[in-house]
User: Fold this.
Amino acid sequence: QKVKELSGRHVIREIGYDPWNATQTAITLQQAGFEMVEIRQGYATLSAPCKEFERLILGHELIHPNNLVMNWCVSNAVVDQDANANMKPNKDKSTGRIDGVSATLCALARLIVQDGEGESIYNSMTPDSALLEA
Assistant:
């Protein structure tokens, strides 16, 4: 119901989701007309978004209105790296919830795949306007 409500105020092009224990939700949303895209939580899917997230943070390119929940999620996150320098968050090693990080990585995964199809509204936002949207 919440997603349907939000679609009245926002354009929802697609919804990325982790298929683990989400099959019924994905089916329900798909039947309601939403484009559902599986985003598995492994190295193959999350390495590029993790590296992009890190690049955005270190490059001071991420607009972040000091959201306390996101700050907490990031402070809890622990990242694993394999022998090939692939990265992904590790929920088991993290010190608390990392849902904000996971959601951001899912969004970045889809942004990377779409490779700039159209201009994002976020390119024109300032930290103050981002606060108004939140």
Confidence is low (pLDDT under 50) at residues 129-134. The chain is about 45% helix and 10% strand.
